[in-house]
Every structure is written in C-alpha cells, then in structure tokens.
Amino acid sequence: MTPIPGSYRRRRIVEGVMFTAAGLATATSVGVLLFLLGYIAVHGVAALSLSFFTNLPAPVGEPGGGMANAIVGSAKILLVAALVGVPIGFLGGVYLAEYGRGSVAFWVRYAADVLNGVPSIVIGITVYALLVRPLGHFSTFAGGVALGLMMIPVALRATEEFLRLVPDSLREAALALGAPTWVTIMRVVIPAGIRGIVTGLLLALARVAGETAPLLFTALNNRFWSPGWRAPTASLPVMIFTYAIAPYDDWHRQAWAGGLVLLMLVLGLNVLARVLMRGGAVRSAG
Amino acid sequence: MRPRRLGDIIFRAGTLGLALSVLAITGTVAAVLLLQSRLAREAFGWSFLWTSTWDPVALRFGALPFIDGTLMTTFLALALAVPVGLGAAVCLAELLPLRVADGLTFLIELLVAVPSVVYGLVGVFVLVPAMRSVETAVQNALGFIPLFSGPIYGVGLLTASVLLAVMVVPFIIAVSREVLLAVPQTQREAALALGATRWEMVRHVVLPYARSGILGSIFLALARALGETMAVTMVIGNRPEISASLFAPAYTMAAVLANEFTEATDDVYLAALVEIGLVLFAITLVVNAIARLLIGRVQRSPSAAA
Residue ranges of the alpha helices (H) in chain A? Predict the structure, then answer.
C-alpha cells in the first residue's frame, strides 16, 4: 500500500463523497427495479382480464382478444424443453460429479461453458438449420428443442455442484453395506442432494421460459391454436414482442398483460427455487 | 477386488453418453454455423467483415454496420453500467449491514431473471419517449457536436445502450459483490489498523485484491450485452448505417438475425446471416473464455463470508 497524501480531514471528505456515490448507485439500481416492477404491474393489471386467458387473439379493432394459444404454446414448448434439457443436464451432471475426474470430464465441462455463453439467437439458427429447414416447417417441437439446449449447461453444472456437496461418508457407508456404485448413487447420493438439484433445474427452466430470440425461427408464431407438436405455435414471449412493436393501442395493452404474466411466471420460478434452498441444499450425513 | 457388476457398467456408460452429448451439441452448433455460412464466406471472403453494403436485392452483403452497432452499443452500455454496478457492489458488500444488503441483493438478482422481451417492452413505451425529450434537450444545447447531431427519433444507438446498461447492471452487481465478499477480512483489518479510512481500505486494499474477479464480472456482462437480441431490436431503430451521431438509428448483429432470418429466401442471403451468427459466436466465445480465466482465480473462502 502506497502512502496516502492529504490531511485527515481531507481524506474523510473524499471518503464521504465516494461512499455517497456508491449509495446513490445502489439507490439507482434498486429504484430502477422498483420502477420496472411497478410500471409493469400497473399497466399489466389494467390490461388483464379473463378473456386474456381464455380467448384467441382477435383481429385488430375487435375487442376481447386474448393470448390463450400463446399460454398453451409456451407450456408445450417448455415441456419439450424440459424433456430435452433435464435428462441430459441431470444425468450428465451425475457423471461429472461421480466419475468426472479425467480429461473427458474436463472437455464436457468446457463444452458446457461454451454452450452456456452462446447467444440465444445463435441457438435458434442452429435448430433452424437442423430441425426446421430439413423438415420444411416451423414447429412446437423445434422451439422446445432450442430452449432445451439452452437448459442443458445450467442443469448440468447445478447437478454436479450439488452432488459434490454430498459428503463422501454417505457414499462410503452405502458401499460398505455392499450396495453397488450405481445403487449408491441412485438411492443415497442423489436423494441427499435432490433439493439443490431441483432448485437448479427450476432455475434452468426459469431462464429459458422468458427466451424469445431462439423461438423466432423455430416455433415462429401462430394466431390460432397449434395442433400437436409439428405445427408453428404462438408463445408468450414472441407474442409480447409482436404486439409491442405493432402500431395498435389494443395490442399494446395485450402486450403489457402478457409481460406481466410472463414476469410473474419467471420470477415465481426463481422465488420458488430460493424457498426450496432455504432448508439447505444438501441433506448432511447422520 | 470385487467383480464389476453389470448395473454399474450400464449406469456409468449411460451417464457418460449423456455427458458426451453435451460435447456433441456444442460441436454441432459450431459445425452448423461453419457449414451453413459457406456460401457467403466463399462469395465475400474476409471483406464481409469490413464492407458496409447490405443489399438483399442485389445479393451484396457486408456486415460492418452490424458489427459496428454491436460493438458501439456494448461499449456504451458498459461505460454506463460499470461505474453504477461497481458502486452498488461496494455499497452492498462493504457499507450496508449484512441483513439489509442481502435483502437488496436478492431484489437485484431478481432483475437478472427478468426476460429481455419485458425489458424491451418497457424500453419501447417508457425509455424511447423519455430519450426523445432528453436527446432534444441535449441537441438544443450541444447540437454543433457531430455526436449529438441529426434527426431525433427516440429509437437509436444511445437508447439501445441505455437499455442494455440497465440490463447488465444487476449482473455486474451480483458477481462483483460475491467477489468483494471473498476478500479476506484480515486484509480489511490490516488496512484499518494502519490508519486508513474505510474508503482508502476499499480503494487500496479490497478493490485491488478483487481486481481479476471484478474484471471477470465485467466480461460476463460484456458477453451478455453482445448477444442480447430482443430488447435491442425493439429500441435501436434497425437501420444498417454507420452514423457519427449517437441519436441515429443503428443495427446490431443479433437484431438483424432476429428481423431478417425468416425472410431470407435466397441461399446466399441466408448464408450471410448465418455468417453474422458465426462472427457473434466467435466473439462471445473469446469474451467468455477471458471472463472464466479471470473469475477462476478468485475463490470465496469460508472465513470471508462475515
């Protein structure tokens, strides 16, 4: 540490100025948050109605339209995403935690980090090239796969991290009783870390639930119900985007309602994950 | 040694297979980008990166306006976000009582989870009109400077940068605060014992100790800002021109992908868009690698949590 020049009084003034600035920065950040949540809540609640949840989008100028198809579409897309992302992320994470010491594990972790950093729109391009163009149509399935790919790195790292927190004494106890390794992992290690893992999976789902960019050219959009899994479908995020940049006041109101519902969904998942964590991520030995 | 059991072999092979699929997926992403952009790479070569004609009718493509827009918005956003984010991180790690700071941090971390389309929604209806009045006022006072010249739309480079800044600040706060909390308490006590004020302790001891982790958090924010699509698309004005003015509409790599990908009917057009994706992928790859190197050096020690 270099000597600090200036009288004590002067140094205290500098301290006061800098810490006031830091306080202002905090106040600004929290202020923006409260403004954002408040603004969305006010406009969203004003625009919400029962028909928002039950009706299809109405043509411009016709009242009473809703986003029922987008809500169902988002649910279907997230289901596919979970079916793709959870098995690979979870069981891949089990491998990393329980067997992952060699160079294979190093490269898998590295690949997961890279995948985690890929901009979501680039994931959309990849899935378009693999599942949309060859099959000739946009689909719920393609949208779900795109989001599923984005879930994988988050789920993988969460699973690995929480399984590593499970004390080795639990593994040793099970093995000493004669259980095979895989039974030890399935019946002892995973149940001990399950709370943290579920939290990680919820956060992974929350992360992709609000994603719009990868859906633009995989699930596309749809003004009507989308039958099955192989047709283009509406989704809440894409619908909000479409309505927000359209020139109609009524659509803007619908976009606010959609924004509020999406925000509640994502924040709800986040809060739920944190509540689950409160009791401790991992059950300790004994 | 006991004999290997069939169940163990199957379980290990199964989980290994799924772990390897992550490797395959990441490889596939890179391969698809390389293969699908081949037409454009052959047609335009490296000049794709520094020519600025974007003409889907004549099938002439240069990505410079998009690269410029992405780098400019990212740079401006970080210039705005880093001081605020760091200041708040210092406040939350060093000044406020832990209970209060934890509560506020929880709120700020919720902001990280807000979907970007929701930021875009607020951007379109709140930020754009606000920026229109701010920019008009600035132009009336300083309009002779090229940076503040030209017609004012509300949407544009500066608006997108401000929105991006709002989006990455929580990110910087959350990661930087963790890093600051990881600085051992003994370091702080030593500085105070030498007669430093608390600010001098932060400035000369805590921040230098945490430097690489803080830089890492900035690079993470950088990677996020580079790839951000929806919010930027909604407020940047989407015009592929490089302008001297901060108020002018611009375009980013992610935004042009979002807007034009489904309209690209010609193979070369599509390949040019995929090549933009490839460039974006390459840039974020490098930025993320740097972030990981920097953050990897800092570990939170148990005694530092106090």
Answer: 8-47, 50-54, 68-98, 103-117, 120-127, 140-165, 168-176, 181-184, 190-209, 236-244, 249-277
